[in-house]
Amino acid sequence: MTPRVPGRAQLWRAPLNLPDALVTELTEMLTAEECASAAACHGTPQRRRYIAARAALRAVLAARLGCPPPSVAFTYGRHGKPALVGDTGGRRLDFNLSHSGELAVIALTDGAAVGVDVEHRQRRVDHARLAARVCSPAERAHYAALPEAQRADFFLRLWTRKEAFVKATGEGIWRRLAELDLAGVEPGAIPAHAPWHLYDLALEADYVGALVVAGPLGEIEYRRLDVAAARG
After folding, report:
1. 24 part of a folded domain
2. Alpha helices, DSSP H only, in the chain?
3. Cα-atom radius of gyration of the chain, to the nearest Å?
4. How distant, in Å, are the alpha carbons of 11, 108, 144 from that of 105?
5. 154 lies in some domain
6. 159 domain-assigned
7. Is the pLDDT of residue 229 over 70?
């Protein structure tokens, strides 16, 4: 089946450092299952970020569908990729959510598969150990040739590219990331992986991110979400 070419993607950015009183109100937008997942989060900051991110996703989708945020319903693919289910008013919308630190990003297209990933630059990860596991031989060589001070940033940028790719394709953790070489890929079509197109995101200074879409984009429309105003 030929993928629908989106032409444009919306990228919503939503802050997660919200007041406690607002976070409590936002739980009214979530399902019982989402509230249970929030309760299972380890620590208050993680719980707050989860609630704020899920509420932001519901607010964005509800605005496009013309329905209350709690009415937005999801189904999940074989490897966990979410999709809209139920009455979508004839709209073909594809979306993806990622959050890190105090920022959530939501990608939205008109029917073309999409994946997005964001990472905070100060996230504490053993990038040397992870690079050995998830990087291709060419990527590991590139990583090793960099000055030590540049390796963490290189790895995070590469990681967001790979995460966005496997989220777009729906493969998730089942994809062997070391077989996916994206370090030298320029924004645009990904060689040997048609129809997928890769774009590095322009985010706040403390964050890096990537977007992968089934088809070329003429525009990425950046928007800022005020979830308090959008909750309906």
Report:
1. yes
2. 20-26, 32-39, 44-65, 127-134, 137-145, 148-169, 227-230
3. 18
4. 7, 10, 30
5. no
6. no
7. yes
Tens digits of residue pLDDT in 111-139: 899 999 999 998 888 999 999 999 999 99
Domain ranges, residue 39: 7-121+186-230
Q: What is the CATH number of the domain that holds 97?
A: 3.90.470.20
Pairing between strand 114-120 and 207-214?
antiparallel
- Whether the pLDDT of residue 232 is over 90: the answer is no
pTM of the predicted model over 0.90: yes
Q: How many domains does the chain have?
A: 1
- The CA distance from 155 to 130, in Å, is 9
**Could you read off the pLDDT of 47-99 as tens digits, one per residue?**
999 999 999 999 999 999 999 999 999 999 888 899 998 767 677 899 999 99
Mean of per-residue pLDDT scores for the chain: 91
Q: Which residues pair with 212 in a beta bridge?
A: 115, 198
Does residue 146 lie within any of the structural domains? no
Q: Alpha-carbon distance 161 to 147, whole Å?
A: 21
163: CB partners within 8 A, 6+ apart: 98, 115, 117, 210
Amino acid (one-letter) located at 132: A
